[in-house]
Design goal:
- The complex is a heterodimer of chains A (about 300) and B (about 220).
- In chain A, about 80% of the residues lie in helices and about 5% in strands.
- By secondary structure, chain A is an alpha+beta fold.
- In chain A, strands 2-3-1-4 form a 4-stranded antiparallel sheet.
- The radius of gyration of chain A is 31 Å and the shape is elongated.
- The two termini of chain A are about 25 Å apart.
- The relative contact order of chain A is 0.16.
- Chain B is α/β, with parallel strands linked by helices and about 220 residues long.
- Chain B has helices spanning about 40-45, 70-75, 95-105, 110-125, 140-150, 170-185, 195-200; strands at about 1-10, 15-25, 30-35, 55-60, 65, 80-85, 155-160, 190-195, 205-210, 215.
- Chain B has a 6-stranded mixed sheet, with helices on both faces.
- In chain B, a hairpin with a 2-residue loop joins strand 4 (about 55-60) and strand 5 (about 65).
- The chains are: A alpha+beta (about 300), B alpha/beta (about 220).
- The interface of A and B includes residues 8, 220, 222 and 224 of A.
C-alpha cells in the first residue's frame, strides 16, 4: 500500500505540473534564475582562482650568488631549500646562462652591450629562483636563508644578495589583496545565493497559495497530510530538474561566446572549463535545484495544512 | 448517531450557535432551515470538526469529535460525505480523478477505483463527463459530481450544505431526488437549505434555526 501511495503521489505531482500552465512556467523560470546565479558563481570562482594562481606564480625570491661561488656549494644550498616544506620549486640559473639571458633582454640596448664587452669576463653570478607554495611563506624562506642551517651549508660566503626584502612590501600587499579578494568573493556568493533562494521560495509560496482552497477540500474529503503535501513536493522537485536542464543548456552558448572572445582578458577559456567540469557542475546545480524546489514547497504548504 | 450537548459558538461580536442540544439518529433525513446567518453551516461544520465549540460537546456515535487527533479526525471524515453550495471540486482534476481522489484517500486499490468510479458516475447521470474538468460542466453537473464524490466511499452520513443554492429549479429537484434515494438506501442525511420548496418536497424531519437557536423541531413538535 505504501508503494501504491508513493506511485499515486508521484503521478499526481506530474499531472499537477503539466496542468499547471503559467504557474508551473513561472516557478521553473524563477528556479532557473537561482540556478543560473549559482552557475555564474561557480564559473567566476574558477576564473578568480585561475587569476590568483597566475599572480602567485609571478612572485618569487631570487638569491644572487657571488661571481666565483663554487657550484657544489650552490647545489647544496639548492637541495636544502628544496627540502623545505614551504618551497614549491627552486630553479638554478648558471652564470653563463645568466649572461645569455641578460644579453637577450638588452638586445636593443647598444650602450649596455658595449659596456658589457668592455668588462670582458662575465660580471654576473649564478642565481636561484625560489617559489613558495603560498605567498605568506616567503618570510620564513627568507629567514631560513639568514639562519644557521643555511650558513652551515656554506651559504654565508656565496650569497651576494637576496631580493626578498626589497620586494617584501609588494609581496605583503599582494597577499592582503588576494586573501581580501577571496573573502569578498565568498561573501558576495553567500549574499547572492541567499537572495535568490528567498525570491524562489516566495514564488513557490505564491503557486501554493493559489491552490489554498483545493488543499482545504482535499483535507475535508479525508486525505492525509502526506497525500496532500506529497504531490506539491514532487512538483517542487520537477521545477528543480527542469530548471537545471534549462540552465545548463543556456550556459552552452554563453560559455562558447566567452571562450571565443574573452579568453585573453580572463586568461582562461571558460568554455573548456565548463565542458571539462560539466558533470560536477551538473551535480551541484541539480542537487541545489531539487533541494530548493522540494523544501520551498514543503515549507510553503505547512500553513495551509494544519487545520 | 449525532449528539449536540449544549453547544455554543460565540465570536467576538456575534453568536453563531446558542446552546444547541439535539440528537440525530442513524438513517434519518433531517432538513435544517433558516435564514442566512441562522447557524446552519456552523452546525454542520461542528460535526466535521471544521469549527470548534466555545461551549458544549459534539459526539459522533461515541466519539467526541473535537478531542480527536489529526489521524483519527482524518478517519472520521472518511465516514462522512460532504456536499457544499460551491461544490468544492478539485478544479485541476477530471470528474473521474475527483472521485478517484476520494477513494485513494481511504486507501482503495486501483482495481476498486476503476470499477466503482464509472458506476457511481452513472448513478448521478454523468457518464458522459468521465474525463471532463469541472469548468467544462454546468452547475447542476458539478453538484452531481460532488454528490457522487460524497457517496463513493459509502459514508454513514451525508452533510449537504445548501447544495441547491446555485442551481435552477430543475437541477434543484434532481439533486433533492438523488439525496432522497441515498437516504432510502440507509445513509443518514443532513440537508441545510433556506428553500422552503425543497423542504416540502422531502417531507421529513425539519429543524428550524434562527439566531443560532433551534426554534422548531418537527420531531419534537416544539
Amino acid at each position: 500500500m505504501a508503494i501504491t501511495n508513493l506511485k499515486r503521489i508521484v503521478k499526481a505531482g506530474f499531472k499537477n505540473f503539466t496542468r499547471g500552465g503559467l504557474v508551473s512556467f513561472a516557478a521553473v523560470l524563477v528556479v532557473t534564475i537561482t540556478l543560473s546565479v549559482i552557475t555564474v558563481i561557480i564559473l567566476l570562482q574558477a576564473v578568480l582562482n585561475f587569476s590568483l594562481n597566475q599572480i602567485k606564480d609571478k612572485v618569487d625570491v631570487t638569491i644572487y650568488f657571488t661571481v666565483d661561488a663554487p657550484e657544489s656549494k650552490m647545489m647544496r644550498l639548492k637541495e636544502s631549500l628544496e627540502k623545505l616544506p614551504e618551497v614549491a620549486d627552486v630553479s638554478y640559473t648558471s652564470a653563463d646562462d645568466a649572461l645569455k639571458l641578460f644579453r637577450e633582454r638588452h638586445a636593443n640596448d647598444y650602450s649596455t652591450l658595449a659596456a658589457l664587452d668592455e668588462i670582458g669576463n662575465n660580471p654576473l653570478g649564478a642565481y636561484l629562483n625560489v617559489k613558495a607554495k603560498e605567498i605568506s611563506q616567503y618570510e620564513s624562506i627568507a629567514n631560513f636563508l639568514k639562519s644557521d642551517n643555511a650558513l652551515t651549508n656554506g651559504g654565508a660566503d656565496i650569497i651576494d644578495k637576496v631580493n626578498y626584502h626589497q620586494n617584501k612590501l609588494v609581496i605583503d600587499r599582494l597577499n592582503t589583496i588576494i586573501s581580501g579578494a577571496q573573502k569578498l568573493g565568498f561573501l558576495l556568493t553567500f549574499l547572492l545565493v541567499i537572495i535568490s533562494i528567498i525570491i524562489t521560495f516566495n514564488t513557490i509560496r505564491l503557486t501554493i497559495f493559489i491552490s489554498k482552497e483545493e488543499i482545504g477540500v482535499m483535507r475535508l474529503v479525508g486525505a492525509s497530510k502526506m497525500r496532500v503535501r506529497g504531490p506539491f513536493m514532487i512538483e517542487g522537485a520537477i521545477y528543480g530538474i527542469i530548471a537545471t536542464l534549462v540552465t545548463l543548456i543556456l550556459f552552452l552558448p554563453l560559455t562558447i561566446w566567452f571562450g571565443r572572445n574573452m579568453s585573453d582578458f580572463l586568461g582562461m577559456n571558460i568554455y573548456d572549463y565548463y565542458i571539462s567540469n560539466l558533470f560536477q557542475i551538473f551535480a551541484i546545480v541539480l542537487f541545489s535545484g531539487i533541494i530548493l524546489g522540494v523544501i520551498s514547497s514543503f515549507i510553503a504548504i505547512r500553513r495551509y495544512l494544519n487545520k | 448517531m449525532i449528539y449536540f450537548n449544549n453547544v455554543s459558538k460565540i465570536y467576538k461580536d456575534a453568536v453563531a450557535l446558542d446552546d444547541v442540544t439535539l440528537t440525530i439518529t442513524a438513517g434519518e433525513f433531517v432538513s435544517v432551515v433558516g435564514h442566512s446567518g441562522a447557524g446552519k453551516t456552523t452546525l454542520t461544520k461542528m460535526i466535521l470538526a471544521d469549527e470548534s465549540p466555545t461551549e458544549g460537546t459534539v459526539f459522533f456515535e461515541s466519539i467526541n469529535v473535537h478531542r480527536l487527533r489529526n489521524k483519527d479526525l482524518t478517519k472520521l471524515r472518511q465516514r462522512i460525505g460532504v456536499v457544499f453550495q460551491d461544490y468544492k471540486l478539485l478544479s485541476n482534476k477530471t470528474a473521474y480523478e475527483n472521485i478517484a481522489f476520494a477513494m485513494e484517500a481511504v486507501g482503495k486499490t486501483d482495481e476498486e477505483i476503476s470499477s466503482d468510479v464509472p458506476h457511481v458516475l452513472e448513478l448521478v447521470d454523468l457518464s458522459h463527463r468521465l474525463h471532463h474538468f469541472p469548468n467544462q460542466m454546468s452547475g447542476g453537473e458539478q453538484q452531481r459530481l460532488a454528490i457522487a464524490r460524497a457517496i463513493i466511499n459509502q459514508p454513514e452520513l451525508i452533510i449537504a450544505d445548501e447544495p441547491t443554492g446555485n442551481l435552477d429549479s430543475i437541477n434543484t429537484h434532481e439533486i433533492v431526488q438523488i439525496l432522497k434515494k441515498i437516504n432510502d438506501l440507509g445513509t443518514t442525511v443532513i440537508l441545510n437549505t433556506h428553500d422552503r420548496g425543497v423542504v416540502e418536497s422531502v417531507g421529513k424531519r425539519v429543524i428550524t434555526m434562527e439566531n443560532g437557536k433551534i426554534i422548531r423541531d418537527t420531531k419534537h413538535h416544539k
